[in-house]
């Protein structure tokens, strides 16, 4: 089996492939690693045929929808997944054929209602049901410690003891383990009586994952994260360096507009000399009066360089085909000691 484990922080994704047929599948892909997965698949001569999410992730952004669209292949998830973009909904006992590799679905709820583990001949992808030295938490939306108990002790831990386990998260230590090893050393699995296990899970006090609400929104709806929105806008516009802008305003070019898209208070508090002011919030509504010439070169800027990127992308879409964004923002401009109007009194 072709096998690659890709870590992104603690999150783990897996590319598996059948050497005989060149068929592949990606398990739990994350948005920041999209190019890495595609490069690995190419390197192994594998065509990804399925994108599989073991469950609805609350702590990272699934790349499933994007990859499915880019590659023209289905997203696979358990039938209880709330995500509307799932193409192939699977259930307990279903088999996903990846060339000659067979992945059998075990419904293993508890961390989430839609959690599933995928059993191959010598390994099991456990999602966040069974982790190395831990278990998935049960205090996030649709989690249930009673269900996790049944999933672990009634299903996963009954698999062949020599089976290797590959979870969706690894917080420390080894990158894989076995059922046998976990039964022996995983502290959470030492509570083998249902009541004790459930009580332990209920009393773990774990901090909430970063980006919880945003990750759930994106993963449950197929929408985009703020970072994705900014990255998409950044891909649509060129940038101009602060030095270049400074030189151009010094030269007094009259076909060049510096456009401050911050709010009024920020503009009045200090802006780039010659800048026009048009806040991002009313950009579309006021653009006809503020920018009558669509052929002019426009450089947008804001405080940190993010809103200005969105503004430049909007302007390009509206026909200002020479709009660019400042590479940086007012904060960086001031830090460079570049000129600001009105000049502050020393
Ligand atoms: Fe999870």
Describe this structure as you would to a colleague.
It is a single chain. With 346 residues, the protein is α/β, with parallel strands linked by helices. The protein has two domains: 2-224, Metallo-beta-lactamase, Chain A; 227-335, 3-Layer(aba) Sandwich (Oxidized Rhodanese, domain 1). The protein contains twelve helices and 19 strands. The chain has helices spanning 34-44, 64-71, 145-154, 179-185, 194-202, 212-221, 226-236, 242-251, 264-268, 283-290, 307-317, 330-335; strands at 2-8, 11-17, 23-27, 47-52, 75-78, 88-90, 95-98, 101-107, 116-119, 123-127, 130-131, 134-135, 164-167, 177-178, 239-240, 256-260, 276-277, 297-301, 323-326. It has a six-stranded mixed sheet with strand order 1-2-3-4-5-6, with helices on one face. Strands 7-8-9-10-13-14 form a six-stranded mixed sheet. Helix 7 crosses helix 11. The longest helix has 11 residues, at 34-44. The structure holds fe (ii) ion. The site of fe (ii) ion (FE2) has 7 residues, from loops.
Characterize the overall form: elongated
Cα Rg: 26 Å
| Oligomeric state | single chain
How many H/I helices?
A: 12
Look at the helices and sheets and give the structural class. Answer: alpha/beta
CATH fold assignment of the largest domain: Metallo-beta-lactamase, Chain A
The largest sheet has its strands arranged as: 1-2-3-4-5-6
How many domain regions? 2
Name given to the CATH architecture of the largest domain: 4-Layer Sandwich
Largest sheet: 6 strands, mixed
Number of strands: 19
Strand fraction equals 15-25%
Report helical residue fraction: 25-40%
CATH class of the largest domain: Alpha Beta
CATH superfamily of the largest domain: Ribonuclease Z/Hydroxyacylglutathione hydrolase-like
């Amino acid at each position: 089996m072709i096998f690659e484990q890709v870590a992104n922080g603690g999150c783990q994704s897996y590319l598996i492939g059948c050497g005989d047929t060149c068929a592949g599948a990606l398990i739990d892909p994350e948005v920041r690693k999209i190019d890495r997965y595609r490069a690995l698949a190419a390197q192994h001569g594998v065509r990804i045929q399925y994108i599989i999410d073991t469950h609805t992730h609350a702590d990272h952004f699934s790349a499933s929808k994007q990859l499915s669209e880019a590659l023209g292949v289905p997203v696979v998830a358990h039938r209880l997944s709330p995500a509307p973009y799932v193409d192939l909904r699977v259930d307990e006992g279903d088999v996903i054929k990846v060339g000659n590799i067979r992945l059998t679905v075990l419904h293993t709820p508890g961390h989430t209602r839609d959690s599933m583990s995928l059993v191959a001949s010598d390994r099991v992808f456990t999602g966040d049901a069974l982790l190395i030295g831990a278990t998935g938490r049960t205090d996030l939306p649709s989690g249930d410690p009673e269900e996790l108990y049944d999933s672990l002790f009634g299903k996963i831990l009954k698999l062949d003891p020599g089976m290797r386990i590959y979870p969706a998260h690894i917080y420390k230590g080894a990158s894989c383990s076995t059922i046998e090893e976990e039964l022996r050393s995983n502290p959470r699995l030492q509570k083998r009586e249902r009541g004790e296990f459930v009580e332990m899970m209920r009393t773990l006090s774990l901090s909430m994952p970063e980006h919880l609400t945003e990750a759930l929104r994106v993963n449950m709806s197929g929408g985009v994260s703020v970072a994705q929105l900014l990255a998409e806008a950044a891909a649509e516009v060129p940038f101009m360096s602060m030095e270049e802008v400074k030189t151009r305003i010094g030269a007094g070019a009259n076909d060049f507009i510096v456009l401050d898209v911050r709010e009024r208070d920020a503009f009045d508090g200090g802006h780039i000399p010659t800048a026009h002011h048009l806040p991002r919030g009313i950009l579309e509504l006021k653009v006809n009066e503020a920018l009558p010439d669509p052929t002019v070169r426009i450089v947008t800027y804001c405080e940190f360089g993010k809103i200005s990127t969105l503004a430049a992308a909007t302007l390009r879409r509206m026909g200002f085909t020479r709009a660019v964004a400042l590479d940086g923002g007012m904060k960086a401009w001031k830090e460079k000691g570049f000129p600001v109007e009105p000049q502050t009194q020393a």
